[in-house]
Amino acid sequence: MHDKPLTPAAERILAVASELFYDRGIRAVGVDLIADEAGTTKKTLYDRFGSKDGLVQRYLKRRYDLWCAHVTQYVDSLDQGEQRVLGVYDALDLWMRDNHRGCGFVNAFAEFGGTDSPVLAIIESEKAWTRSLFARLATEAGYPDSEELGTRLSLLHEGAVVMGTAGGRDDAIAVARSVAAELLAALARERKFVAGVELPRT
């Protein structure tokens, strides 16, 4: 999900807006504040992004790209198999250390859900990407029914983010990873049993 390169001035506006949108909420932040914090004018903002809506879309697209790159780089550093699947949770744990207000896409949905805003398509794309990543990694690791497994693993992933922020559970991601590991181990035992080689339970 890529757009045309931005000018240095536009990059500054986007950086400031991204921080404000995430920390305070999209609707709570006006273009006057963004322009002031970025050291520019509203005219420059509108010239570069067309409207606040255009800036919001660019913010979410940039966040989407950063998240995808972060997870992909982390997972690609791991060996094939179960560890790559579980590595998504480890990547999430690292990501959340700098994202104290939870998932920016869930936060945006809380503000725009039920509307016809184009930002909803970006939010849906991010959730679909994470789900498909789990499914692909499960396929590469040899697990059966990888699409369904990808859905289950992504639900654990999403729940961990919510419980880690709104639910006050600092261990939410670790718990989700542990549950995912148990699920993968159970599937591995089932696969070996069907093949005639039963694995010991751990």
Automatic annotation (TrEMBL):
Q: Carries keyword DNA damage?
A: no
- Please give the Gene3D superfamilies that the UniProt record associates with this protein: Tetracycline Repressor, domain 2
UniProt KW DNA-binding keyword: yes
Q: Which GO terms describe its molecular function?
A: DNA binding
Q: Which Pfam families match?
A: TetR_N
InterPro entries cross-referenced by the UniProt entry: Homeodomain-like_sf, HTH_TetR, Tet_transcr_reg_TetR-rel_C_sf
Report keywords, A-Z: DNA-binding, Transcription, Transcription regulation
UniProt domain HTH tetR-type: residue ranges: 7-67
What is the name of the protein in this document? Unannotated protein
Q: Which organism is it from?
A: freshwater metagenome
Q: What phylogenetic lineage does the species belong to?
A: unclassified sequences, metagenomes, ecological metagenomes
